[in-house]
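Exercise 4. Each item below gives a protein and its sequence. For each, produce the structure-token representation.

Item: Protein translocase subunit SecD (Leptospirillum ferriphilum).
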Amino acid sequence: MKRKIGFRLALLGGATFVSLLLLLPSLPVWKDLPGSIRKLLPSGKISLGLDLKGGMSVTLQVDREKAVEGTLQEISTAMKTPSIGPRIQGTTIIFPVASGKDRDTLVKRIRRHYPYLQIQSQDASAVTFSIPPAEEKRIRAHAMTQAMEVIRNRIDQFGVAEPLIERQGKDRIQVELPGINDPERAMSLIGRTARLQFLLVDDKNPDADKILEKKASVPKGDEVFYSHRTGEKGQRVE
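Answer:
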């Protein structure tokens, strides 16, 4: 009988000791421990859920079909010229042409910039391109990945230590923000519509450097976009 009690006490003591080791990284005393000791101990903190810490939970839906429509719209905008006014019909894009030469030039441009587009039909007056099913699937999948990345970047503005962002099904994203104090602002920021644009890069303009130095004008139909790079600590490096 005494042996059984001793075994149970030893088991209870061992479980308590392990629990304390796992709990240490979540306690204020953790930062006061010497680095040599912290290296020997588990460093993962205990994540408090919404039931313990409070906060907000929301499920967002990604309009994946809009991503396909947006891709066609960006192609239409990029390929539009004074003589070519494309129009979108479903998952196809129709380019009117005035001659066989214009048609051949158009097909070459499409092949160069959007090689995944397929010719669905063509005649003397128009060429119709479509997005193949495999590319549509890739665009929809990328829309989900991009949406999760955008949400994660927006959540970083709140300084939430351990947010939960996970995919649910084909088009839903579950977001949990423990300890959030301003749910209305969080919702307005997270739920704001994001849109990715695809633009052709004019890398053959001989006046590119002069344009950046504001010594030459931007050609009609072009836009100048500026960006900067950041270091590992978030500082601007250029």
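Check: The chain has two domains: 2-46, 54-200.
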